[in-house]
Write a structure and sequence with these properties.
disordered N terminus; 22 strands; binds flavin-adenine dinucleotide; 483 residues; FAD/NAD(P)-binding domain
Length: 483
């Protein structure tokens, strides 16, 4: 803490002594860009003259977005937040946003021809009192009967991972500033999990093949659209995403980004897609598709670079990474029970999760809202587009269909490689290199907080060192994607 206080007071002194502060340009108004603006303001207000956020869309939030189906809004991207995600909890608290708890669903695990396992349907208001009281216990008993002690092993694996993640919330003085995700993960104890697949990690933890091929697979397919062969850390984070006590922001999680940007007093330029970043004369020139130019001492990329079209001069080099596309399809209508070999629509579980079988064309189907008999809102996650012909088989009625194709998260493949947070050795930063560890609202915020501290400490280093010399950007030695 003392070291950090020293950093703050040194920055204060330094920047109050100069007529002009530093302008920071952030590319991307999702949670990474928004929380970076927040932490820069929080930790280094005196050091930063202006923060400009350049966002290609007409709204902020990025992958935290809602979709409207027949007048109701539903989360279309990031849906749930873990009860131990301390940044998200803190943000929503000071922004005055309301939490909406996520209730547990009636789960059925579909193998393409039958439900191999189902939890109990939740009690209705007309259900007997005793059933309502005993429901959680009976449900746990049912799950335990199928998966046995492996369930406890899974829980302790997830708890261990969450415990190590909590290191990222230590007091500032007890937490170094990291130049790369790799350093960050090594320090926290999580790095090893990025080197093996989730399947290998869970087998080492003593989970049974039945639990891995059913419940665990259902969860990784829902949370990351990937199989248990994805890397261990992202898989563990996905498993934590099915814990109890999950919540969301009432009205949409995107409000966290909107609130943070507003509170940081950043200048927000919507509809500005950055296409070129050039370092010249000691600063970065960012050019938008519309032809506007922004000049900044510090430039931060707060979006995955894997599918965007931005050119860098001098060129940068980062490990090649492909993104998993997740197609989110909202349906207003009624499911066809015959598709699942059932007689009545009411026999179809509220959450249909699926096993890793190539013929199954979707990862999950979840009821979002019931409007009454024969009229419901559903959300489907799938790896490929759900064509009308397929939807006509799965749904008996369809009054509205909304489709979104997300470049959702990295395809996790152990051993993971990481780009540095500093792309050029100077002041070009990349928050989303951390996404190779895991992709969530909270991991973006954790990475952004570290990058904010890194920017401030490196600015201080610049002013400490002899100063007038403008260093040439160094090329990353990482071999892969040249941009
Ligand atoms: C379907 C789905 C479900 C998910 N479920 C969960 C969940 O339940 N819980 C959870 O915590 N996480 C979940 N996630 C992951 C979570 O959404 C992301 O990890 C997180 O939102 C990433 O935030 P970000 O700011 O790093 O990136 P983004 O949200 O992608 O923000 C990047 C921003 O940059 C903008 N941009 C891109 N290129 C340019 C450019 N050239 N110029 C200017 N602007 C640009 C984009 O428009 C975007 O607004 C889910 C993601 C998806 C897709």
């Amino acid at each position: 803490m003392a070291r950090f206080l020293h950093l703050c007071s040194a920055l204060l002194f330094l920047f109050s002594a100069t007529a002009e502060g530093t302008r920071v340009c952030i590319v991307g108004g999702g949670i990474a860009g928004a929380s970076l603006a927040h932490f820069l303001k929080d930790y280094g207000e005196a050091a930063i003259d202006e923060i400009i956020i350049l966002e290609k869309n007409s709204v902020v939030g990025g992958r935290m977005a809602t979709a409207t189906l027949a007048g109701d809004t539903f989360e279309a991207g990031a849906t749930v937040i873990h009860r131990k995600n301390l940044h998200a909890l803190n943000f929503t608290s000071f922004l005055g946003l309301t939490h909406k708890p996520k209730s547990s669903s009636w789960l059925g695990i579909w193998n393409g021809s039958r439900f191999v396992f189902q939890t109990l349907p939740p009690p209705k208001s007309s259900s007997p009192f005793l059933y309502k009281k005993l429901f959680p216990f009976l449900n746990s008993l049912l799950v335990f009967r199928r998966y046995g002690l492996s369930l406890l092993r899974m829980r302790s694996f997830v708890e261990r991972t969450v415990g190590e993640f909590m290191n990222f919330y230590k007091e500032l003085g007890d937490r170094p500033i990291f130049e790369s995700p790799e350093e960050m993960l090594k320090w926290s104890g999580l790095h090893g999990l990025t080197k093996k697949s989730l399947r290998e990690e869970l087998a080492l933890a003593g989970l049974s093949p039945l639990l891995i091929s059913e419940l665990v697979t259902v969860i990784t397919r829902i949370n990351y659209g990937q199989s248990v062969d994805m890397s261990g850390l992202a898989g563990a984070v996905g498993l934590a995403g099915s814990d109890s006590g999950l919540w969301a922001v009432d009205g949409g999680n995107w409000q966290i980004a909107a609130g943070l940007i507003e509170r940081s007093n950043a200048t927000l330029n919507l509809g500005e897609e950055i296409v070129a970043v050039e370092f010249k004369n000691g600063e970065y020139e960012l050019e938008s598709k519309a032809g506007n130019r922004y000049f900044c001492r510090v430039a931060v990329i707060a979006t995955p670079l894997d599918e965007v079209n931005v050119s860098f001069s001098p060129p940068i080099s980062i490990p090649r990474r492909s993104l998993q596309h997740t197609h989110v399809t909202f349906i207003r209508g009624l499911v066809n029970p015959a598709y699942f070999g059932l007689e009545s629509e009411s026999d179809v579980p509220d959450l249909v999760g699926t096993m890793e079988i190539p013929e199954i064309p979707f990862s999950s189907i979840t009821i979002q809202k019931s409007y009454g008999q024969g009229d419901k809102a559903y959300r489907i996650f799938s790896r490929r587009k759900m064509e009308d012909s397929l939807l006509n088989q799965i749904f008996r009625e369809r009054t509205e269909t909304v489709r979104i194709d997300w470049a959702a998260y990295p395809r996790y493949n152990a051993p993971e490689e990481f780009a540095s947070f500093v792309l050029d050795g100077l002041h070009l930063y990349y928050v989303n290199s951390f996404e190779s560890a895991a992709s969530t609202i909270e991991t973006s915020a954790v990475a952004a907080e570290n990058v904010a501290r890194l920017i401030l400490s490196r600015l201080l280093d610049d002013s400490d060192s002899s100063s007038n010399v403008i260093r040439a950007p160094s090329r990353s030695t990482l071999p892969h994607l040249d941009l």
